[in-house]
Amino acid sequence: MEWVAIVTVLALLQCALFSFLVGRARVKYQIRAPAVAGHELFERSHRIHANTVEQLVLFLPALWLCGWYLEPRAAAVVGSLFLIGRQLYFNHYLEQPRDRGTGFLLGFLATLTLLLGALGGAISSLILH
């Protein structure tokens, strides 16, 4: 499960980086807390981070359950696709929000794959044991 743990830490570091970038944008565009509006680039950064946090709620349990019930290395590879998708989402959303779909879709499909793998693995485990 070490590979799953590594992908987990990378996902959390990526989220922390996005959080840091929100803070940096807050300072750069002089958006005082608790405001979450005031400059388009700040708002984009904020939405990217918020969406990433929302996606992590699904991704992290799916990653661990898939790794536990199926194959940790395979789960880690699929989990890496989530990280790549999130980075693409970040890059494209910041530049042009309408182009964020590819990154979102890659991350979503990775999470869905992990969820289905976890479900299939758990059902298989019930049947075989």
UniProtKB/TrEMBL annotation:
Predominantly, its location class is: membrane
Q: Does the keyword GTP-binding apply?
A: no
Q: Does the keyword RNA-binding apply?
A: no
> Any idea which GO molecular function terms this record carries?
glutathione peroxidase activity; glutathione transferase activity
Q: The organism sits in which domain of life?
A: Bacteria
**One GO cellular component term:** membrane
Bilayer-crossing residues are 6-27, 106-128
Report membrane topology. Multi-pass membrane protein
Tell me which Pfam families the record gives.
Answer: MAPEG (PF01124)
GO BP terms: namely: leukotriene metabolic process
**InterPro entries registered for this protein in UniProt:** MAPEG, MAPEG-like_dom_sf, Membr-assoc_MAPEG
What does the UniProt keyword field contain?
Membrane, Transmembrane, Transmembrane helix
Cell location: Membrane
- PANTHER family from the xrefs? MICROSOMAL GLUTATHIONE S-TRANSFERASE, MICROSOMAL GLUTATHIONE S-TRANSFERASE-RELATED
What name has this protein been given in UniProt? MAPEG family protein
